[in-house]
UniProtKB/TrEMBL annotation:
<feature type="DNA-binding region" description="OmpR/PhoB-type">
    <location>
        <begin position="130"/>
        <end position="228"/>
    </location>
</feature>
<feature type="domain" description="OmpR/PhoB-type">
    <location>
        <begin position="130"/>
        <end position="228"/>
    </location>
</feature>
<keyword id="KW-0238">DNA-binding</keyword>
<dbReference type="Pfam" id="PF00486">
    <property type="entry name" value="Trans_reg_C"/>
</dbReference>
<dbReference type="GO" id="GO:0000156">
    <property type="term" value="F:phosphorelay response regulator activity"/>
</dbReference>
<dbReference type="InterPro" id="IPR001789">
    <property type="entry name" value="Sig_transdc_resp-reg_receiver"/>
</dbReference>
<dbReference type="InterPro" id="IPR001867">
    <property type="entry name" value="OmpR/PhoB-type_DNA-bd"/>
</dbReference>
<dbReference type="GO" id="GO:0000976">
    <property type="term" value="F:transcription cis-regulatory region binding"/>
</dbReference>
<protein>
    <submittedName>
        <fullName>Chemotaxis protein CheY</fullName>
    </submittedName>
</protein>
<dbReference type="Pfam" id="PF00072">
    <property type="entry name" value="Response_reg"/>
</dbReference>
<dbReference type="GO" id="GO:0032993">
    <property type="term" value="C:protein-DNA complex"/>
</dbReference>
<dbReference type="InterPro" id="IPR016032">
    <property type="entry name" value="Sig_transdc_resp-reg_C-effctor"/>
</dbReference>
<dbReference type="InterPro" id="IPR011006">
    <property type="entry name" value="CheY-like_superfamily"/>
</dbReference>
<keyword id="KW-0804">Transcription</keyword>
<keyword id="KW-0902">Two-component regulatory system</keyword>
<dbReference type="GO" id="GO:0005829">
    <property type="term" value="C:cytosol"/>
</dbReference>
<dbReference type="InterPro" id="IPR039420">
    <property type="entry name" value="WalR-like"/>
</dbReference>
Length: 230
């Protein structure tokens, strides 16, 4: 089944360019020209990914992302006409999965979208058996993009899921922020330590909502590790 992508930008030409590139890559596209339309479309449809321009009328992209993250973990790729580090950091901190600056190559944009979607796609069942990973009350099923604590399912964004899965593979190891960055963001993008800290904070909050108040431990001056006794 083809992936359904919502493309939101107030520039008609950019919408058309992105739509053409995605449809050529066998993806289904829905278009929006402002933030209000994005929120309306997101309520009516289940999208596989949203391409979200930061500088839009009727709620900008950052405001839209914050609103979406209240109820949805849909992957979000930000677009911006400004190569502004603050926009990039804020966008990733509030739940974005990638950030592309205009002008951009449509081919690169499609490649980045495919990279994000690939992280969420289960392996081919005919060539693999289901892998279930346990760590105390934490359970992850990568093929189903599933994570739970004490049998309570937790909704994580693609980036948050990648961080927890990476740490679960070596649960006794302390991971530096740089190492977490390398595995959580698979495309070449500059992010700060503060961005990783923000994602860790979001992960902790989501686990706390199901009663797990200590999932990731801070090792001061070094980085993070999964907490042994939780």
């Amino acid at each position: 089944m083809s992936k359904h992508i919502l493309v939101a930008d107030d520039d008609l030409h950019i919408r058309e360019v992105i739509s053409f590139a995605l449809e050529k890559a066998d993806m289904r596209v829905t278009l929006a020209e402002d933030g209000r339309q994005v929120l309306a479309q997101a309520r009516e449809h289940c999208f596989d990914l949203i391409v979200l321009d930061i500088n839009m009328p009727e709620y900008d992209g950052l405001e839209v992302c914050k609103e979406l993250r209240k109820t949805s973990d849909v992957p979000i790729l930000f677009l911006s006409s400004r190569d502004d580090e603050i926009d990039r950091i804020i966008g990733l901190e509030i739940g974005g999965d990638d950030y592309v600056t205009k002008p951009f190559s449509p081919r690169e944009l499609v490649a980045r979208i495919n990279t994000i979607l690939k992280r969420l796609q289960p392996p081919n069942k005919s060539t693999s058996t289901e892998i279930i990973m346990h760590y105390g009350d934490l359970v992850m099923r990568p093929e189903q993009y599933y994570v739970s604590w004490q049998q309570q399912a937790i909704n994580l964004t693609a980036t948050e899921y990648a961080i927890v899965l990476f740490m679960l593979k070596q649960p006794n190891r302390v991971f530096s922020r740089e190492l977490i960055m390398q595995h959580a963001f698979t495309t070449p993008i500059y992010i700060s330590d503060r961005t990783i800290d923000s994602h860790i904070r979001h992960i902790r909050l989501k686990f706390a909502q199901v009663g797990c108040n200590a999932i990731i431990e801070t090792v001061h001056g070094v980085g993070y590790k999964l907490k042994l006794n939780f």
